[in-house]
Write a structure and sequence with these properties.
This protein is mostly helical. The protein has seven helices and no strands. It is elongated. The two termini are 38 Å apart. The model has no long low-confidence stretch (mean pLDDT 82).
């Protein structure tokens, strides 16, 4: 799984470099040509970059709402699952994107055993202590 994470990180860096290069090219253009090139960038590269970042966050167990607090356009669960290379994970991705995934579901998805009731109580106590300190 780490190699897949490394591949995603590499792809994210490639897309960021492409974005920087495209912005430099756009600064040299004007008029309709600039508009057309910008729209091509927005539709293709930006869409790909967003969904690659979401796939990376999914693999790391970061809640969707922590990644995108406000979004005007719903992400494609199909695209995220296809970037992960496993279309059968789409139901998991759908749940993750809805923001309804519980902490125990995240732990299970990442391959960690669920927390016992004692561990849950300890985590709750330590979180309460940190909040009151």
């Amino acid at each position: 799984m780490n190699s897949h994470r490394d591949q995603l990180k590499s792809r994210i860096k490639q897309l960021a470099d492409l974005g920087r290069k495209t912005r430099v090219e756009l600064n040299a253009l004007a008029g309709k040509e600039k508009h057309d090139r910008r729209m091509m960038y927005v539709v293709t590269t930006r869409f790909e970059a967003r969904h690659t970042l979401l796939a990376y966050a999914f693999l790391r167990g970061i809640p969707y709402k922590a990644v995108e607090r406000k979004s005007n356009e719903e992400p494609s669960a199909f695209k995220v699952a296809s970037i992960l290379g496993d279309g059968e994970r789409r139901p998991e991705v759908d749940t993750w994107l809805s923001g309804k995934e519980t902490a125990s579901q995240v732990r299970t998805r990442l391959g960690f055993p669920p927390l016992s009731e004692e561990e849950q109580a300890e985590n709750l106590d330590s979180n309460l202590e940190a909040m009151t300190a």
